[in-house]
Design a protein that fits this description.
- The termini are far apart.
- 29% of the residues lie in helices and 31% in strands.
- The protein has helices spanning 15-24, 66-77, 94-99, 142-152, 170-177, 190-202, 233-245, 260-270, and strands at residues 3-11, 29-34, 53-61, 84-89, 105-107, 111-115, 126-130, 160-164, 182-186, 210-213, 224-230, 247-259, 274-276, 280-282, 285-292.
- It is α/β, with parallel strands linked by helices.
- The strands form 3 sheets. Strands 8, 9, 10, 11, 12, 13, 14 and 15 form an 8-stranded mixed beta sheet that branches.
């Protein structure tokens, strides 16, 4: 079955009212998108940011009367809707649509990240079979790629690794496949922990080698050899004391999820605990590394 969508040009001030109007007119869902290429990089905790120019899209069953629906939405809004248009949306299996574009990717010399539903290109390589599910981390984003390349070039034999903000588990599981002995995977999203456990099982990782936990469940006296944190600059600043305590002296630190303009501040901040190395950049994203004092 096809769907109809009503797309309305909105602003920060009227987007909520337009969203309410479309729902009142029978929309089965409403999405808000940037309509002017304005980035929102890091909202504050509890904040729901909106763009100055927002596109509000209501999804409707294909058998509705579009004229009547427009009248109802207009009446609910209280005045004429801003610039809008109706479109036919072809029905697709959106999960399969996304899956068809996720291809195997190589990082460094040894490591391949492969969709779990496709054959690895090099069967004798280190192949991580991945299904991200609802969690962040497929290797396609530069922040993840920067971390994977670092892990591929590191001697991880018998090391304990903390994956702080594990998402899909991609970094922790890659560490285990590259030789690490144990991983502690931490995330504040239970869905991420579920995805990490599922992906570990998919890669035949012994459950005793990977511990998944919420931030308040981290095992006491954790002293890892390596900690990798691919999150955002704000949390990285706030978590610096805790992150430093999770590493043993001479332990190695890998930070990502940082844009160029944030790198200097984080670099200086972490020098309190680490001997920091020069930043590495990919597509305006930064990786910072250091060694614990």
């Amino acid at each position: 079955m096809s769907w109809l969508q009503l797309r309305v040009k909105a602003t920060r001030s009227n987007s909520d009212a337009i969203e309410d109007a479309l729902l009142a007119a029978g929309a089965v869902s409403v999405t808000l998108e940037d309509n002017a290429d304005q980035p929102i990089l890091e909202p504050a905790v509890g904040e729901t940011p909106l763009w100055n120019n927002t596109r509000v899209t209501g999804l409707f069953n294909a058998n509705i009367d579009t004229d009547l629906t427009t009248v109802i939405a207009t009446a609910q809004y209280g005045k004429s809707l801003p610039s809008y248009r109706w479109e036919i949306l072809e029905d697709k299996d959106w999960e399969r649509e996304w899956m068809s574009h996720f291809e195997p990717m190589k990082f460094g010399q040894r490591l391949w990240i492969c969709p779990s539903w496709k054959q690895p290109p090099e069967v004798d390589a280190v192949n991580l079979l991945l299904d991200p599910g609802l969690a962040f981390g497929s290797g396609t984003h530069p922040t993840t790629a920067l971390c994977l390349k670092w892990l591929d070039g590191c001697d991880l034999t018998d090391k304990t690794v903390v994956d702080f903000g594990c998402g899909s588990g991609i970094l922790g599981i890659a560490s285990l496949l590259l030789g690490a002995e144990k991983v502690i995977a931490i995330d504040n999203d239970p869905q991420a922990l579920t995805a990490t456990r599922d992906n570990a099982k998919r890669n035949n990782i012994d459950s005793q080698r990977i511990i998944t936990c919420l931030p308040d469940q981290i095992p006491a006296n954790t002293q890892a050899d390596i900690l990798v944190a691919n999150i955002l600059a704000g949390p990285l600043l706030e978590l610096a004391p805790q992150i430093s305590q999770l590493l043993q002296p001479k332990g190695l630190l890998v930070l990502s999820g940082i844009i160029s303009s944030q790198a200097d501040n984080l670099y200086q901040h972490y020098q309190r605990w680490f001997d920091m190395e020069p930043a590495v950049e990919q597509d305006d994203w930064i990786r910072l590394t250091g060694q614990r004092h």
